[in-house]
Amino acid sequence: MLRQAQKILKDYFGYDSFRKGQHEVIQNVLNGQDTLCVMPTGGGKSLCYQVPALALDGTTIVISPLISLMKDQVDLLRANGIQAAFINSSLTPSEIDETMMNVRNGEVKLLYIAPERLEMDSFCMALSQLNVPLIAIDEAHCISQWGHDFRPSYRAISKVLKLWNTKPTIIALTATATPTVSEDICQVLHIESEDTFITGFARDNLTFKVLVGENREKFIKNYLENNKNESGIIYAATRKAVDSLYELLLKFGISVAKYHAGMSEAERNDEQNRFLADQAQLMIATNAFGMGINKTNVRYVIHYQMPRNMESYYQEAGRAGRDGLPSECILLYSPSDEQTQRFLIDQSRDPSRIPLELEKLQRMVDYCHTEMCLQLYILQYFGEEVEVTCERCGNCCDERPSVEVTEDAQRVLSCVVRMGQKFGKTITSQVLAGSKNKKVEGFRHLSTFGILKKMSAKEIANFIEFLIAERILLVHPGQFPTIYVSEDGKDVLLGKRKVSRRVQTVKAVVKQDDP
Ligand code: ADP
User: Fold this and answer.
1) Nearest 5°: CA angle at 381, between 175 and 73?
2) Ligand 1 center to 498 CA (angstroms)
3) Which of 8, 206, 209, 457 would be a feasible disulfide site paired with 433, CB 3.0-4.6 Å?
4) What pLDDT digit, counting tens, does each position of 213-265 carry?
5) Ligand 1: which of 6, 9, 11, 15 to mutate, most ligand atoms within 8 Å of CB?
6) What pTM was computed for the model?
7) What is the dihedral angle through the alpha carbons of 439, 442, 448, 451, rounded to the nearest 10 degrees?
């Protein structure tokens, strides 16, 4: 069977060998095992179901939420001589009938459908008449309510699997599953844990950096000056930020495109096409841009503000360097980004998801403050068991010396304890700085009031973020997040554990130039 897969890879796709992980996943699927494949964006997930689809008799169903991209995917397959089709709301009823007839006649090896279709009884009836050896569930994190993009219609998949006497094999694929999300996908789809393949999250050609307190506009101008002919993406958190940055860079004569959900579909398509065709060097966009985009020569992805969670960050940053050449992923962080994201989370449609979203936001903030290898942080976040540092990222290459800050950490921790572990980092910083702010007047009697007055409240807040990233302090997320001392923190208080931190530069805490 695998020999056949190898031949399909060569004959249809023109590749000589499978990539790390593809081989194992395809073998498992061809053995009839339901499989979960977690691979980063650009890792080569599509082949993991396309190759088995061509090796098996019948029509493989591909469930994909990306309606706008189905046509492109199908066109690409057809260009490789593969019989593929799609059914979604962009087709007329007679086009759908015609496609279904082609499927019944055995003329379609891969049929792409939107998940909403599975909620239609008539469509399920038609499916049940077909010979379906394999169902591929793309963007499978949408099935999990712990994922960052839960789609209720994905839950209909479980029901659909019962349509046939012989259940088709399932392959669920995603680029962004934390261990919790992976477990949830497995539970919903009854996939055994040994059939989960998490592979190659490390993107060895990507260099991650977090820059704190940069003047963002100045940074972007300099960066573009030094990367004149390279293709890149800048992600900003809001439409307003995209618009204003776009105007600014236009003035500087940069060939730039923009993309956000406030633009018409035609405008968005035009802008996207200009970028894909290298007519625009730079794309400035909100997170609405990029799903399924296969532009290989993106040399850098800059986040103008911190995104709301690590899943989004890695997915967006991962659009750099799909061709395997060295590329940069830079995050420009300012403490005010957290407020922006909190505001966006508060506006979210489903209030029951807010606590989870805030928890994820905290891990994102931690990424901006950690001193560990950034690649390692990402890999561990996604559940890969690795310890090797990348030796390329901003933290691995940080040459600032480390100094011991155990005593200052103890001062912060004891202040948190004296304040009853019931307050947030801003108030705590002001108490430690001995601020004249009326809000902290009630804490003047504490022995820790002003105990860190050698630092400004902003510097202390930054230090507290560092202690949170080190898991010395923990956060109770919520509308008014509060900080408390962890078990590790207790060891620091008892003098059983030392704390070191890189020497801080002044700009880490200066006010930002927010757009
Ligand atoms: P994903 O869906 O995981 O984001 P894709 O399936 O789109 O990634 O694959 C990313 C790119 O890698 C595509 O251009 C694809 O053709 C290429 N690719 C996938 N597998 C291989 C392989 N075995 N050898 C060479 N290129 C591959």
Assistant:
1) 5
2) 45
3) 457
4) 889 999 999 999 999 889 999 999 899 999 999 999 999 889 999 999 999 99
5) 15
6) 0.78
7) 40
